[in-house]
Design goal:
Strand order of the largest sheet: 1-2-3
CATH class of the largest domain: Alpha Beta
Number of strands: 5
Helix content: 40-55%
Strand content: 5-15%
Order of helices and strands: EHHEHEHHHEHE
CATH architecture of the largest domain: 3-Layer(aba) Sandwich
Length: 187
Amino acid sequence: TTLVIVASKTFTTLETLTNARVVREWLLDGLEKSDALAGKSKAEAVRKHFIAVSTALDKVEEFGIDPQNAFGFWDWVGGRYSVDSAVGTSLAIVLGPEAFEEFLAGFHDMDEHFRTEEWGANVPVLMALLNVWYTNFLGAHTHAVLPYSQYLHRFPAYLQQLTMESNGKSVTWDGKPVNYQTGEVFW
């Protein structure tokens, strides 16, 4: 039994859809070779073996996934921040419900800490201020993350996506240029 989860906010991300198409062909080829289709169409097989996590149910359906097998989430949630939304479906399956609930509780605890703690003891605020200090006053424009375990070898790449796509903007929300460093390069 194979379940494929395609997670894409807009269901237009090139890399995600390219991989999803390759997996779809792999699955259908395997089902055909093993006679597992048993008179079912390829479209039925896709509907049975694929689920989606997206805000674009029309595109999910165009791909061949039954919209009833799709988990939606708010379109204002940035994809790289959405692991605690429906985008975390694969993680919830891997961890199991109890561990995933603990994971979500940790997010909630940190949200509450950020929302209620005074700035002098507010860890996210202090970390942000330190980043501003390091980049703008000390000239430290790069940030190295060196995993201590092989299991974490892709963690720096995740942090690159998380931070460098969000920070480092050269203009404000209303399009005005900024005259200071807004983020560092992650390695």
